[in-house]
Amino acid sequence: MRVYGGYSAIYSVLSEVKEKLYVYNELASRRGYYLKPVHKVYKRVNGVTRVYEYYGRYWWRKGEGKLIYAGSVKPKGLPEPPENPLEGLSIIREGDDIIVDCSLYDRYSWLFRGLRSERVA
């Protein structure tokens, strides 16, 4: 499904989550970890940049001046992270429009309420 203006809806929810994550990451960084709520992959398709975004829990650990991916399972000894209502959502972003699998569109229909959408091949 293509959702016109769908990224604005996602961004507003993500902004709320990020504020809680900043506080959480202050605690996690004391143990050498950092939690990201989204993983982005950039691809150029027919001259258009597409951003593939995956929402969830992505743990990183500090190592020799850079962050190293540590997996999607919470490391031992860390408190529970804040809830992420976008967890499990994956999209393709083209500007402010998004493309989302039909099953995910149904699961996150609360997020896309009031936005124009259409089926795409």
Structure description:
- This protein has 121 residues and is α+β, with helices and mostly antiparallel strands.
- The chain is built from three helices and seven strands; from the N terminus they run E-H-E-E-E-E-E-H-H-E.
- Strands 1, 2, 3, 4, 5, 6 and 7 form a seven-stranded antiparallel sheet that branches.
- Strand 2 and strand 3 form a beta hairpin.
- The longest helix is centred in the N-terminal third of the chain and has 24 residues.
- The model has no long low-confidence stretch (mean pLDDT 93).
Summarize the structure.
This protein is α+β, with helices and mostly antiparallel strands and 121 residues long. It has helices at residues 6-29, 102-107, 109-112, and strands at 2-3, 33-45, 48-63, 66-71, 90-94, 97-99, 117-118. A hairpin with a 2-residue loop joins β5 and β6 (97-99).
